Amino acid sequence: MARKTDIRLRRSATAGNAPSTSDLNLGELALNTYDGAIFLKTHDGSSDAIAVAADARTLSIDYTNQRVGIGDTSPDNKLHIN
Question: What is the number of domains present in the chain?
Fold first, then answer.
């Protein structure tokens, strides 16, 4: 379990501002208060990636049909951008 001092937090209020893997260290979270998104740096043993949890108004995931909507809550394709 992480200790309180192990978690670092970064914040942005700029629309569309998302960190890259070089912007975050493992254990850091980045919040975008404008977009309502949380970013977390992950590592699978061989490479780094950024995991994103976003506000449903921005990103919608239809797990049943394996579809993702950006700006669309009812995606009708694998990736639907509105």
Answer: 1
